[in-house]
Specification:
Strand order of the largest sheet: 2-1-3-5-4-6
CATH superfamily: Spore Coat Polysaccharide Biosynthesis Protein SpsA, Chain A
Largest sheet: 6 strands, mixed
Strand content: 15-25%
Shape: globular
Distance between the termini: 20 Å
CATH class: Alpha Beta
CATH topology: Spore Coat Polysaccharide Biosynthesis Protein SpsA, Chain A
Order of helices and strands: EHEHHEHEEHHE
């Protein structure tokens, strides 16, 4: 399984001890991806991806996070990679998430991980404020990519929640 760590110019300091933090999660091989930085081209890119749709009232940070996650997914699709783990550079695990894959239901399209472990594989309504984009596993990248590029608003966290509600999905916490 490919593991991608998203970082930005303003969060590069998080990479200083990224190996140690990922090793706590059972991750030893990963690729660091520089996130998109905001520019005037960002809105143009989003319109192309979203069939002319704007981001609505999103801010610059939402736009760059959205594009950065899509960039990882589109590169996976181009390289025939159908599953991956996408992690932000500020992640800090308290358990080995690779071990959690042994118990994960096989019908999952997307699985989101909380950094603190509580042995549960379900999504319930009280997690609406959960940050899904901090660490998530895609088991069908193409399906998720097509779904989120066709949805509004163009905020990755809300789109992941919509995907979770649409397809078999799990939260490990």
């Amino acid at each position: 399984m490919k593991v991608f760590v998203l970082t930005t110019q303003e969060t590069k300091q998080n990479l200083e001890n990224i190996k140690e933090r990922l090793m706590k999660g059972g991750i030893y091989k990963f690729e660091i991806i520089d996130s998109f930085e905001y520019s005037n081209l960002t809105k143009t890119h989003i319109r192309k991806i979203g069939n002319g749709d704007d981001m609505n009232e999103n801010d610059e940070k939402d736009e760059t996070i959205y594009l950065s996650n899509l960039y990882v997914m589109s590169n996976c699709i181009a390289n025939n990679i159908n599953e991956c783990l996408i992690i932000r550079d500020d992640i800090d695990f308290s358990y080995n998430i690779i071990e959690a894959f042994k118990d994960m239901p096989k019908d999952s399209v997307i699985t989101c991980f909380k950094t603190k472990r509580q042995n549960d594989f379900s999504i319930d309504e009280d997690i609406l404020d959960f940050d899904f984009s901090k660490c998530y596993y895609l088991n069908d990248i193409l399906k998720v990519f097509h779904y989120i590029t066709s949805q509004q608003p163009k905020k990755i966290n809300q789109l992941l929640l919509k995907t979770i509600r649409e397809y078999p999905s799990y939260l490990v916490y």
